[in-house]
Batch of 2 targets.
Target 1
Amino acid sequence: MKFKLSALLGACAVVSLATAGAVQAETITIATVNNGDMIRMQGYTSQFTQETGIDVEWVTLEENVLRERVTTDISTKGGQFDIMTIGMYETPIWGKNGWLVPLNDLSADYDAADILPAMSGGLSYDGTLYAAPFYGESSMIMYRTDLMQKAGLTMPDSPTWDFIRQAAAAMTDRANDINGICLRGKAGWGEGGAFITAMSNSFGARWFDMDWKAQFDTPQWHDTLTFFKGMMDESGPAGYATNGFNENLSLFQQGKCGMWIDATVAASFVTNPKDSMVADSVGFALAPHKDGVAKNANWLWAWALAIPAGTQKVDAAKQFIEWATSKNYIELVAANEGWANVPPGARTSLYENPNYISVPFAKMTLDSILSADPNHPTVDPVPYVGVQFAAIPEFAGIATEVSQEFSAAYAGQQTVDEALAKAQALTTDAMEAAGY
Amino acid sequence: MARAVTTRRKAINTAIAWAVGLLIFFPILWIFLMSFKSEGDAIKAPLDMLSAPWTLESYGVVQERSDYFKHFSNSVLLSFGSTLLGLIIAVPAAWAMAFVPSKRTKDVLMWMLSTKMLPAVGVLYPIYLLFISLGILDSQLGLIVVLMLINLPIIIWMLYTYFKEIPGEILEAARMDGASLRDEVLYVLTPMAIPGMASTVLLNVILAWNEAFWTLKLTAANAAPLTAFIASYSSPEGLFYAKLSAASVMAIAPILIMGWFSQKQLVRGLTFGAVK
């Protein structure tokens, strides 16, 4: 009996040691968005595990669901995630709140100085980097070269809005279901709200003056909205007030748009012959500006990896971030899937690589990113950082409501003047309530 | 003549019923069709999409990218677990209100129902903080309790309605024969209320299976059910319609099949006591 008991205790000890060994294999949990580049990264995670012995669990969610989910978790110190995928809007706000682990001690091999200045600037607070860009994007014009030629026009490198309106009207062919231009009109601060804000910058408008007073009662905003609605009513697709990125991508890929101004990452989709019917006739140009205004209507955004301050696995999380946003990762993707599929817009060295520069949209993507300045997004000075957003916690809620009013105007449910008056009132109320 | 009118009316009613049924089922049918197309074909105009080649590509990608069976088993555990726990609490509660009513019984029932009127997001932060302090974030146990709580008013209401249909004299007779309270509920009341309880179980399993607010907010990698599985294929920046459709079909198929097989029971239970 004594022998049996000893054997049992011995077996338990062996099992405990084996279990302890297994527990030591660290696992990190990463919350991320569902898009092509992020899904591709998930596919290569096994290589990271092989190199480091760290397992990775992914929680992939739709962008807006993810934003709500990680905001709840980080603000309550829930500790559900060791790495979060966040954007340029959240990073400076969360960095300021002390919710993120600073990334100013990344290894020398990582070469943090290689991150494009526009990206590192937008992902920092008070000079400290809080998130490493996985990929960056701006917006630009994607247009049908065949339709432009048929219309007898040539797209300048940096066109004016007047030219775009003229070209859109010339390319529109309702009988053949071709719309001269497709733009986002869908409500939501990251959808139509992002587009109209970037467009308003190019008309000399701004969200707030230096005293945080709403500016929707200015002529610049009136001109922006009137021009947008006028051009889209003339040459846009039916129901454009509810079109976002996906709807316009679908229309463009099916050959139903002459021009589309949207995220630079869309360039790889519309030039992919597997999905796009117009892949071989797409040209690129800088987002437009108003004649006489020195700001183009392009935004700046990055999906970046950050470490929430509550995690117990900071070292493993940093190892993953260094791996996923490194030059080696870009080489890995290029070797397996071609240079057109590497995550763009994050590193300077990518745009010095002759293999990448030969990709048709590479130069215009870089030019677009470089021409967006999140610290000076408007003609007149503003107290906020961000091109298509103002990096303050209140912005997302206010901008969603404002974009709803604008979408109602696009749909003809109210006039432009009514939409602007409501936007001015609700923004003023919200900012006063927030103590500005 | 009267017979002819009746026949015509029946035909019209049948046609209307079919039309409404098809209208309700059409989105599911369309998702099913899209799931067998490539991403490029899924975004085409309806007729072009239908004539495009059929493929299992999206199912292959979804199967490769996600752990379907982990999400599926979580859905099964959460929906059946929460329903079972709800029944254990609801049967005595409904018995008490049906057979030993007080002056406040109706008020209590209305109060229970009124908890369903509170927007869930209003209690998100308190519940999230409670889960953190209890250490049950992203756990099946925590979600079973939450799903049970949000469906409990419906379970009690349904059982109360079914129990009210059962004559109290039968229970009295059992008591006179020496049955204890436990025997009365377990061996007399429950067998008589089986059709009603079955439909209550079915409805609440369906409600728990489809619950998408709490299951998305309170889970991460461990306890995520099929609602999170679907959400991982939705994207505002990138076309994933075919994969999203395939994921949706895989997520709704089990509960749809269960619904088909048990629809007679479900309808019988839901209409029980509707006409007196």
Note: Residues 2-34 of chain B form the longest helix (33 residues).
Target 2
Amino acid sequence: MDSASGSDIIAFLRRNRMAESDIPSEQVRPRTAAAPFDPRIVAFLCNWCSYAGADLAGISRIQYPPSVRVIRVPCSGRVDPFHILKALQEGADGVLVSGCHPGDCHYLTGNYVARRRFAVLHDLLDFFGIEPGRVTFSWVSAAEGERFAELVRHTTERVRALGPMSRLARNATARVVQ
Amino acid sequence: MSTEAALRDRCRALLQSGEVALVVGYRAARTGGNCTPAFVTGPDQAELLVLDKTCHHNLAAYLPGLRHKGRVAVVSTGPTSRSIVNLLKENQFDRKDLHIIGVPDPSSAPASNVRNAVLFDEFIGDKADEPAPAPDQDLAAFEAKTPAERWEILFADLSNCIRCYACRQVCPNCYCPTCFVDASRPQRVGRTPDRSDTIMFHVMRAMHMAGRCVECGACARACPMGIDLMVINRKVAAIVRDRFGHVSGMSLDDPLPLTTFTPEDGQEFIE
């Protein structure tokens, strides 16, 4: 998806409810009790660095798990906490947000402002008991293809260990609490 | 002369001289119980104004709706004045059009630990003793629980939410022309009975309070379902205080914490 307005991002998340059919069948096993759990991760990548870093990982033929679905954003500062929560609600098991290293922002200060916002969101998710491990924040430059691949591997394993998203996911919370 | 009588006299004088067109204060509720807001436009109505221990409302919530309606005087307790500070910082009201009458918080059960107005043009009455800052025992006890326990408690409490948005309506911070829960293009928060939508609303509400909530407790008092919204608000305030050293609404000079940054901000959570 192209670098986007807010309505595009939300429409994308809703349209692609991270359905099984969304992923090529040879890459994913159906979710059954017997099969191991393949997490689905939405990655918000800054156009100027992390997106290019992911591209470098691709053209360098570096292998990493096919668990991420990339949404390209103009800056990590564009990522509203709402987008992160919406992804988790609409079927993602984890979210990865990656931008330029501090000092390298294409817009000079976008990632610094984003960092404060993400710090509050990180602490707030922990407070609510929504595992903070589901939401990973990272800085990846355009030259760090291997670092991006390692980040995806690491994030995938951590979300796999946490299991499917239930706390914020739509329909999963419709149970009765005593 | 009692503070209440002095307040009436002063408001009468302000209206008589034409210095202000309107006084926003408190009046006795017709049905008894907590005081309701009073909008006094004439000197003869100044007798309506009261100041007693049931004056809980955060009157700053009315200011965004009173823009460009002449000069307004507001009876401001500690929480109200802190909200006014935030509204001024967010350019929601013109300081020239505002006459702040500071009063000590007369409320019997103040939610906030700042009782006297922090920003005022004049102060009426004797300043109340500010309680010494104390560690937040309730919040610490809640945070000591496991994440699963915290989730179960908050989820059970928030599941009672009927999404009437009374918490938003009374909040001085919530002045957006279109709230994110009402936005329909795109629709952000679903209007379904699914509880994930309710949780989304409350997490996002908490995010929007970061660095802005003055802990006046208006939302929790307005909640018809008795949800403990203050535990969330106090946590958000604690996050901002601990991470950025910012206490909301205490000074016109500090920038709002989420609109600024320092290169040294903590990033231990970033990989």
Note: Chain A is about 35% helix and 15% strand.
